[in-house]
Amino acid sequence: xxxxxxxxxxxxxxxxxxxxxxxxxxxxxxxxxxxxxxxxxxxxxxxxxxxxxxxxxxxxxxxxxxxxxxxxxxxxxxxxxxxxxxxxxxxxxxxxxxxxxxxxxxxxxxxxxxxxxxxxxxxxxxxxxxxxxxxxxxxxxxxxxxxxxxxxxxxxxxxxxxxxxxxxxxxxxxxxxxxxxxxxxxxxxxxxxxxxxxxxxxxxxxxxxxxxxxxxxxxxxxxxxxxxxxxxxxxxxxxxxxxxxxxxxxxxxxxxxxxxxxxxxxxxxxxxxxxxxxxxxxxxxxxxxxxxxxxxxxxxxxxxxxxxxxxxxxxx
Length: 316
Fold this sequence. Notes:
GO biological process, one term: ATP biosynthetic process
Protein name: ADP-ribose pyrophosphatase
Order of helices and strands: EEEEHEEEHHEHEHEHHEHHEE
Helix content: 25-40%
Pfam family, one: NUDIX
CATH topology of the largest domain: Rossmann fold
Strand content: 25-35%
Radius of gyration: 20 Å
Distance between the termini: 28 Å
InterPro entries: His_Pase_superF_clade-1, His_PPase_superfam, NUDIX_hydrolase-like_dom_sf, NUDIX_hydrolase_CS, NUDIX_hydrolase_dom, Nudix_hydrolase_domain
CATH superfamily of the largest domain: Phosphoglycerate mutase-like
Number of domains: 2
GO molecular function: bis(5'-nucleosyl)-tetraphosphatase (asymmetrical) activity
CATH architecture of the largest domain: 3-Layer(aba) Sandwich
Number of helices: 9
Oligomer: single chain
C-alpha cells in the first residue's frame, strides 16, 4: 500500500486595480508554475506548515483564510517506492515579509486569475484557483478568524486541593499550549480573551508573550462565572464579532457549547457550505471539544452582519 506524504500550501491573493490577483511560484528544478507549498515537518499541523512553507518559498508572511480543496497525486517516497502526496491548501492574505526568495523558488509572480489559469502547469492546481474565485464572488475571501479554544490538559481535579480556578496545566497541557501558539500564528490572531482561570490563561499565554499581545481575562468565561449567568460569556463573543479582528477566546467544556450555539445561528447562507458548516458547529457543541482543541471559525462581516462561512477543528 502506498504511503501518504502530507504537505500544505497557500494561494496568496490580493485585489489590484479592481482585479483579483494570485501569487504563483516558479520552481527551476521542475521548470513549472504552481502554488507555494511543502511537506509537513514531523508533528507539524498542516495550517502551520502552509504558512511556514509560504514564507520559506516566497519571503512573504501570510495570514490563512478560508480553506481550499486539497490535492492528491502519486509521487515516489524517499526510498523510491510509490506514495501519494496529499496537499492541504488555504487562501491567504499577505501581512508582511521581505518578499526575498529563500527556498527552491527563483521567481514569484502576481498575476490575474485568468493568466494564472493558463500558466499553471498542473490541472489539479486549477481546482484551488476556481475555488478561490468562487469564494471571491461569494464575498468570502475577506474573512477573519475567531478561534474558540478549550483549555489545554490540566492537573486533574482529584489531585488538586486548592481553588479550582488556580489549577495549572500539566506537562501535556503545556506542550499543547506551545503547539497552539503556532496554530494561532498561522491565522494571524491579534486579539485574545480568556477565562480568568489559570488553566485557560496558560493555554493562550505562550502566543501572547511571543507576540507582545495583551491577554484579556474575564470571569464571565470561567466555569464559575458561567454558572451564575451565561449572558456574560455570550457578551464576550458579541464584542469580538463587533470588532472583527482575528481573535482567540479560551474557555471551558461547560461554557463552549453555548458559544458554539450562538455561532451556529450565524452560519452563512452558502448552498455549497452552509449545511456542512452548521453540522460541524452542532457536532462540536454536542460532543464537546477536546482539551487543547481549537475551532477556527472563518467569518465575514461584523456585528449583527457577521456570518460564519467555514469551520476547521484542530487538535493540539
